[in-house]
Amino acid sequence: MASKTSTERLWTALHRFARISPRKARLTVDMIRGQRCSDAMDQLRFNRRRAARMVEAVLRSAMVSADEHEADMHRLIVKEARVDGGPYFRRWRPKDRGRAHPIAKRTSHIVLTVAEG
Predict the structure, then answer these.
(1) CATH number for position 105
(2) What is the mean pLDDT of residues 60-87?
(3) CA dihedral 88, 60, 117, 24 (to 10 degrees)
């Protein structure tokens, strides 16, 4: 049995060390996964979440990469969209009776891949 070779062209863009927690960024990324890029851009443009601006910039970067390789811009879809946790800053908040409570200022790695669909 012959194996089918995939000729699908993929373009990836990422934003590393984004200063937003992965849990908050995943809510925005889950919304656009599998959609056409034009529809995803519209959703991100009118979304009020802070992560939407970051994800929109990454998606625009992936689309520009596809455009440079002469892809059909009307057929682009969001193939892969994920948010991985990055390193986080450890800070301390002073509390009563001389105690200190930790604060984790988290970062994210936002990865988007677009493909011709």
Answers:
(1) 3.90.470.10
(2) 95
(3) 30
